[in-house]
Specification:
Chains A, B: Its EC number is 1.-.-.-. Chains A, B: GO terms for molecular function: oxidoreductase activity. 2 copies of one chain form a homodimer. Chain A has 14 helices and 11 strands. By secondary structure, chain A is α/β, with parallel strands linked by helices. Chain A folds into 2 domains: 349 residues, TIM Barrel (Alpha-Beta Barrel); 61 residues, no CATH class. In chain A, the strands form 2 sheets. Chain A has an 8-stranded parallel β-barrel with strand order 1-2-3-4-7-8-9-11, surrounded by 8 helices. At the A-B interface, helix 2, helix 3 and strand 6 of A face helix 2, helix 3 and strand 6 of B.
Chain lengths: 448, 448
């Protein structure tokens, strides 16, 4: 089982930064990031994962600044620079950063992740995303956001180029022989000369091949184009589903797309996003969950709910029944429809509805004693809903510490999770092969 | 006197990587970079400086791969990721990385350097350059390189935006008060809404104001537009002149441009690029210089000379007199003309000419005993040729170690250089004020 930690030191639950056990002053706090990385490594986690965005969203709703998802926040580190620093204070844990393909250049992204992979000695990962937020476009000289199809087409070319640039040099291209003066072997370099619709990139990259061959590529899209891009390109998928049945369907769907790209089912790992509140007892976990929800003022809860269903919820009485919204026009995504359906089915009030969605960010939510949480994780894993989990554990850092103290030993006892790191690189730990160089056989000889 | 160390662990002299005392395997070698940073910090240097380029140049001349300038090289780290890692193993030394304005986005650059400044607790610097190399253009979907005037106009807007984004938030914009739930103060954010010819950037930046207010900005251009951009924008200039007279002229020229931007002469520091070979005795220094030149095969020396003067020098006898080239058409820059003039004046052979330019990369070159080198440095400093030096000291690391062991104490005895770090940030150490926020008075109140 793969375990990944959401490494945002501000947490993921809307109200958790206010909890008494949460770290003080979480905005751009390096010491917190270092401590969190060390906690995750002590827990034998596979990797730290940093979400990202390129704009301060909700600028009109200051109460939401500390809320919603980490990528919307105003006081964050640029992920690759942060992970490069964290590489120096950790030894084993993988370091995965989100970087958009919509407003960056493939040569630059290939360079930064190659550099991070060299610095971390093979622990780098790139979460490949496209940026849909219209506000971010305004920070990159675009009048409006790039249309979806363009973004995905661009992302596909982008990934091809980045991988091609990582293969610029054979692994043994740099003999650096003082005696002969032979610094590099000119037969072991390949210029890419990529010419596509969106990009033309000559290459080669000005960095030796990364220790992992290619840093591990993550993707997250669950649309049809997103799933196809993942099957063609990704090593890991970060999936968000609220029920095991839907997660199983997505799992089978994604794995089923691999053969046409000549890939085995094992070559793509699917991590399910989950918020976990684990405690000594079920009651304690429930108590913590209530404390967290109480830290969210109704105005923030309503704003958050409004954003999720795409309807201004402050127009309805807080403690009145959830309104029968026009179902067809609800929500920017399927998440909104799911929330409305649940609220109507369970006859929730507006307040009860926002409290119901706060902890899990509309995703999966495991709460309870160590055994209860381990049971759920084991079931999802064994019943092919996922290959592992991307864990948000409010409150930072106590939630993750408690998970590691209580649940990790339980998973280890059941033989589901490592007791020591065995691999040298992130790929090793994830059970992913080091990619062959597409231009050179492993010995360094040109393949074409 | 300001001292900056060229932090490229491969050195700067064409042949130095082959020297017996040079580090083995210098390409993308993290351990070397860490050791070099610690050496510079032990020597109380103000800062480490990383040159950069975005392409492997001289792909047709493999012998030159380890030669010429660090920005041409194939096996290098991306500078910001490297410095972020080095921030974790140093405490005082400044960390200055080159990033081009030609093929990057101001929002992204503002973010990365803000992040590096937070990670290093106020030790970040950005060397703002434009990219003239046509080969780099081919890595960024450009058919040909961006014309010079466009590049500088773009760089000017770029710098304005980056500084504006660094001022997005008042220094006290994030109270992060758990009790009240007030994460940030919405009156202390300013959206830039920059609309220029090359860029439209809304802002605000998604990072708190950097510890230094603005990371220190370096620039290097010595053309008319380059000098004007430095006077308008830079905190430090990296200047390359071969004689004290020319350096004095440039120094007076640059400082003289400051008043019209409302700046004092002290607010721009000029660092002269210099290659230093210091030894116990003059003879030892001469001997080391000869050893280094002997490590450069004639083919490499000829290639290098050909590049500098823009003429294929292998067409002339190696030990024959330097040819009387058509002076008007020599060299891509003024450097070529200076080399030809010197060779003809001193009646050098072709071999003698390339050996004469190898160590100093056509710039300033100090060689000799500790007292001799300190004398030269003192004279340049006191006679207003510079405010300090950007030092390349072959061989890496022994050249820098010898400089610190021999020359630094001599400079300290003369009262020219610090014996301990006194400042908390790079700006403090350089004697540069922390910039006011253009949108907020220091107390955090909106200034307009």
């Amino acid at each position: 089982m793969i375990l990944a930690a959401n490494a945002n030191a501000q947490g993921s639950h809307v109200g958790e930064w206010r909890h008494p056990t949460a770290w003080d002053k979480p905005a751009s706090n390096l010491e917190n990031a270092i401590r969190l990385a060390r906690i995750a490594e002590a827990g034998r986690f596979d990797l730290l994962f940093l979400a990202d965005g390129n704009g301060v969203r909700n600028l009109d709703k200051p109460d939401l600044f500390a809320a919603t998802s980490p990528s919307d926040r105003p006081g964050v580190f640029e992920p690759v620079t942060l992970l490069s620093a964290l590489a120096m204070v950790t030894e084993h844990v993988g370091l995965v950063a989100t970087t958009t393909t919509t407003y960056d250049e493939p040569f630059s992204v290939a360079r930064r992740f190659a550099s991070l992979d060299h610095i971390s000695k093979g622990r780098a990962g790139w979460n490949l995303v496209t940026t849909s937020n219209p506000g971010d476009a305004l920070n990159f000289s675009h009048e409006e956001h790039v249309p979806r199809d363009d973004r995905y087409e661009r992302a596909g070319e982008f990934a091809q180029i980045v991988k091609g640039l990582w293969d610029s040099w054979a692994d043994d291209a740099f003999p650096q022989d003082k005696a002969s003066g032979r610094f590099l072997d000119p037969s072991k370099v390949h210029a890419l000369n990529f010419r596509g619709k969106h990009f033309q990139v000559a290459g080669p990259l000005n960095a030796p091949r990364p220790p992992q061959g290619h840093p591990v590529i993550f993707s997250a899209g669950q649309s049809e184009t997103g799933k196809e891009l993942s099957a063609a390109t990704a090593d890991c998928v970060f999936a968000i589903e609220g029920t095991i049945e839907r997660a199983q369907t997505l799992y089978a769907d994604l794995k089923g797309r691999l053969p046409k790209y000549g890939r085995s089912a094992d070559s793509l790992k699917i991590l399910s996003g989950v918020t976990i509140i684990a405690a000594e007892t079920e009651e304690e976990a429930e108590q913590l969950a209530r404390e967290l929800d109480d830290l969210v003022p109704p105005a923030v809860g309503l704003d958050y709910l409004s954003k999720m269903v795409g309807v201004k919820m402050s127009a309805y009485p807080l403690d009145g029944p959830f309104p029968a919204l026009d179902f067809e026009h609800v929500g920017p995504t399927g998440i909104g429809k799911a929330i409305v359906a649940k609220a109507l089915e369970q006859k929730l009030t507006v307040r009860e509805t926002y409290r119901a969605i706060l902890p899990q960010m509309a995703g999966n939510f495991f709460k309870g004693s160590a055994a209860q949480v381990a049971d759920l994780m084991e079931r999802w894993f064994l019943e092919k809903a996922c290959d592992g989990f991307m864990i948000a554990a409010p409150v930072v850092p106590t939630g993750l510490e408690r998970f590691i103290k209580l649940v990790v030993p339980e998973l280890q006892r059941r033989g589901l999770f490592r007791t020591e790191y065995s691999g040298r690189t992130l790929r090793d730990n994830l059970g992913l092969a080091r990619p062959e160089n597409r231009f050179f056989a492993q010995a360094g000889r040109a393949a074409e």
